[in-house]
Amino acid sequence: MLFLASLSAVANDAFLKLEQSIKGLSAAESIALLDQFDLTGSNFDAESQAKYYFVYGQQYEKTRQLELAIASYDKGIALVSSLAVTDILIDSYLERSFAKYLQTNDPAVYCEDRTLALHYARQHNNSELLAKTLTQNAFCYTEPTTVQQGIDLLSEALTVVDKSSALNLNRKALIYNATGNLYRRVGLHQQGYENFEKAYLTWQRINDKEDMFNMQHNMLSEALKLGDWDKAQKSLTVQFTLANEAKDYKDLLFFAHLNSGRVALRMNDFPLAIEHLEKAVALHHTSKESYFKTSNYLYLALAYLRIGDAVKAAEMARAFKQDKHFSQNQQSMILQADAIIAMDEAKPIEAVNTLLDVIDLEREANQSVISNQVIISALGHNDQLVNFENQLLANRLAINELNLVAVEDKERIYQLNLMLLFVSAVVLLTLIIFLLLSRRSLKFRAEIDFLTGLYNRGQTFTQGQSLVEKAAKKQQPLAVILFDIDNFKTINDTYGHHVGDLALKSLSKRAKALLKNSDLIGRIGGEEFLIVLPNTNMDQAFAISERLRHGIASRAFHFDDISLDLTVSMGVVNNIDSTKSLFDLAKIADEALYRAKYAGKNKVHLAAECA
Fold first, then answer.
1. 295 C-beta neighbours (distance < 10 Å), count
2. Which helix or strand (DSSP H or E) is residue 606 part of?
3. Which of 131-135, 259-263, 430-434, 566-570 has the lowest mean pLDDT?
4. Cα-flanking dihedrals φ and ψ of residue 139, to 5°?
5. Inter-residue contact 508 to 523 (CB < 8 Å)
6. DSSP state, 521?
7. How far, CA to CA in Å, does 586 sit from each of 151, 160, 481, 523, 575?
């Protein structure tokens, strides 16, 4: 027995040295060191081997090699599951559940391990570990109808946790995190935000960048629920900073772009949303969290739909639907994708019914959220958390004020519910109207410049190319005019972009009135316009250009108390040698336009003169 004890002491000492060697290394460097370690010749007992696999799993987890992490925890659990309950058995179950959470985001998958960990923790004499296990199990009760069970577990954790000043900072942060999760499940989003922020500040004290980022992710979600865009933007700034600092966690930049897209989508800045969400798609390879990668496609589908690109929206919705293992507790998201696909397949009735199902789901969830019993339980837990904080923070918080905030939040829930029902009805009506008019509306928005009412760049070149090809086929003359507004930047800088937009609209209207119905005019850039004149030779094109130039310059434009004299410079070209490409003609006209600018502006320059 003395010999075996001696071997065990040597093995434990070797393991401690191994752990010490890993400190300060990156996750990839730690894995390389562990790969070189000879476990079979180490004389490690079963518990030390389980600790070895636990450390291995943690390093794989940091690099998001989740399958390898889970396999390492499996090996450790198998080694000690038949022995007396130890800390490492419970910790291995908890850490394996976290790896499964990262892999699936599905409580039905990752909570099984947390339940087993709690079963063993109740048999084990370690109150600190029991508090940790109770807290992590509280995250498993994600539905409003099961929040009460999560409250009970957190309440038990608060009774057994060490409340001394030496309390583990991770434990404090985890309790705040679990409490924030509880509050958001019952609709108390302000309280949720505050607890996630407390968790963030606690993890900040030990510079745990991964958990700091996770809390900023949660804070942003709560800020979106509250409609607090300032909080959301501040959170995004912190997220990008952490993503740049924490190089070991390669998926943080993916999440920063994903969250930026979510914020832009909620703020109705759909082009910006698409820009960030597409960047997030490009970073999918850096993350193993399939739930968020799949969600990325649905957000993109919604953003493309809002700019009128129904084809791209349906493509993204179908990409979302390819994930057959997407969390089934997110039925609302699945139904939204189904509605977009049904619209693309010209099934408006099916699309409307699917959207009605979304509304029904949201209403059922809200009814659960505002259950009196659930709110009373949440607020009761708030009282207990306040007592806990007072012991931790030496009465720096005022109980009466916090209780008052809790009561105000309860009243706010009822008000928000009424508002949500009203907004849901309005949204449903809007969606029905949108579906009925979608074909015509989407086509119009895809072709027309939203500001001037002229053709946009894509449609101008599409329609113009057809006219060029038709003229070439019939051997008819055709002219192209490229013009822009002189000194337009000065107008924006002097009067602001609002007046600049009014100038663009008024000038477009005047220019169109000076052309025939058969002539094509479109806005192809900021203050740049393209005109295609079928069956028009160079002399006629020059006369039309002069008429346009004079018609714009001769009369001032009036916007309230502002009077502007606008001029334009023009470059003109005709289809010499039966040129078949509008793009080539536009390039030649652009060179002539440059000459007109160089000659003093407010002039017409013919391409023939450039030769």
1. 21
2. strand 604-606
3. 430-434
4. -70, -15
5. yes
6. E
7. 68, 77, 8, 13, 11
How far is the C-alpha of 442 from the C-alpha of 438, rounded, in Å? 6
pTM here? 0.50
Integer Cα distance of 31 and 285 in angstroms: 20
Please state the separation of Cα 103 from the chain's center in Å: 18
Q: What's the angle, vertex CA 472, arms to CA 470 and CA 478, rounded to 5?
A: 85
Closest to 186 in 3D by CA, of 418, 329, 381, 375 = 375
Cβ-based neighbours of 456, under 8 Å, separated by 6 or more: 447, 448, 449, 522, 523, 524
- CA-based nearest residue to 518, from 503, 531, 534, 530: 534
Beta bridge partners of 570: 483, 604
**Residues linked to residue 483 through DSSP beta bridges, in sequence order:** 529, 570
Query: 520: how many CB neighbours lie within 10 A of its CB?
Result: 20
Mean pLDDT across 264-289: 92
Q: At which residue do the structure tokens 């649905």 appear?
A: 298
Written as six digits, the tokens of 308 are 């009128």
Task: Please enumerate in sequence order all residues whose Cβ is within 8 A of that of 500, keeping only pairs 6 or more positions apart, or say none.
Answer: 488, 491, 492
Q: Which of 17, 37, 31 is nearest to 62 (CA)?
A: 31
The structure tokens listed for 553 are: 């310059």
Q: Which pair of structure tokens corresponds to residue 508?
A: 């477009």
Res. 349 pLDDT band, cuts 50 70 90: confident
Q: Which residues contact 537 (CB under 8 A, 6 or more apart)?
A: 477, 479, 574
pLDDT above 70: residue 394: no
CA-derived radius of gyration, the chain = 33
Note the Cα 403 to chain centre separation in Å. Answer: 34
Separation CA 222–CA 607 (nearest Å)? 59
**What is the C-alpha separation between 566 and 563, in angstroms, rounded?**
10
CA distances from residue 576 to 151, 530, 541, 608 in whole angstroms, order as listed = 80, 18, 13, 10
Assigned token pair, 19 = 């752990």
